[in-house]
Sequence to fold (532 residues):
Amino acid sequence: MIRISQIKIDAEIKDQTKALDLKVKKKLKTERLPDYSIVKKSLDARYKPKLYYVYTVDVDVSEGMLKASVYKDKQISQSEITRYVWPEGAIRKDAGQSVNRPVIVGMGPAGLFCAYMLAHAGCKPLIFERGKPVEDRVRDVETFFNDGILNPESNIQFGEGGAGTFSDGKLNTLVNDRFGRSGKVLEIFVKHGAPKHILYDSKPHIGTDVLRTVVADMRNEIISCGGEIRYEHKLTGVKVHDGYVSALVNDDLTVDTSALVLAIGHSARDTYHMLYDMGVSMEVKPFAVGMRVLHSQSIIDSAQYGSACRPSYLPAAAYKLAHRTDDGRNVYSFCMCPGGYVVNASSYNDHTAVNGMSYSGRSGKYANSGIIMGVDTADFGADDVFAGLRFQERLERSAYELGRGLIPIQSLDAYRKGITDSIHLDRRGLKGGAVEANLNGLLGDTLRDTFLDGMNRFDKIIPGFGSGDTILAGVESRTSSPLRITRDKSYEASVPCVYPCGEGAGYAGGIMSAAMDGMIIAEEIWKKRMIQ
Fold:
């Protein structure tokens, strides 16, 4: 297997497959097209308005097929593919039954993939999810958007699929993956209905609409492999005895297990407190807060593609921005949603938090992202492990009061002047209801100045980014967990047989890294159940 890199094809060419076939044959100096697969596809906009797709392909070539001169080409090399391998060994007969049956709390990406891998290994996991199945959850979220009626246990944060189900569905990760887990996650997504192009797109995404169907299909396979899922079941207690752990669910069901996986998500504040009271060790950690910003998608398209009108063959343009202020504070874009919506992502009464969401087509008229700033104990104190969490709560209560339960919004011009808008702001890029408010006191003076510094800097990169009619929405507070449930080298918490996992435990940030962490925990549980 050989790899050909940097194959450039004009983005205007409609039949990219035919053009790629010709390029591969020409590169290999052969008339017969060999079998090949696309490893990566990205868009090169450095020479805009002239745009190119750049491909990397792996080619299956037989011995003696190619001329010796081909191998002197710097764009051609030996392919090095890391295939994911599940740990070897046979499982004990009792590993999927009784006290040895693994129990997983939470069915976001971490819990979902942990359960999926264990179910395929024959461990028959039992999953408890405090929220509802994804189909019912969608209806509850729409009810909240349309009528303002929040279900605290079934919303954008809680329910099957986790918070990522109501997002842009981004599938990129910065994790250094030496074991092929990221590729395996993508393969599993494709198996269950995601489009094949996520396997090679440089910035893969599937959108909230597709992700919902993928999650449901994965759930059905877990069940077909012997797994069991109990919805509207919340973990309310943990006890350890005789080398096993007992999970108390809904205050009336006790389940014994030798492996309790905590994939609780970053918004399970009540569960954090319960675990801490039960003796589970935690530590405070930095996170980030800020606001969502909305721009016309045409502004972003023009800046990224060099054309006032985006050609039909190009996707809605994205951006990634970062700036370090003179006082050392980092401000950067987060969870950018091309052609998407700002959504009310609240999960607690009297609290308002926002997030970004888009569908697979990214066809909305607005682009949005969180413009956020890193915060740590210097900002919220270090009195105890819940200092960061309380900081989040204060921001969200303030946002709720400003918006009276709706999303508080303001133009950037009014924010700079410290006044409430006197004009009617466009709400077409928002879901969940919005009202004009003065957001000036929301973040505090220091973070406000950092935010404006970042917006001014980003305006120099993307003209119009810092224009006065840019819409701000508050508050972006659920970027990651404000604490970490500590775990040792065997991935166990301070309480034996308990495995903290995913974003809520402080070990991931996004769909991919959470799913990969779920796989790591599944592997560890499997190893301890194998016949040695």
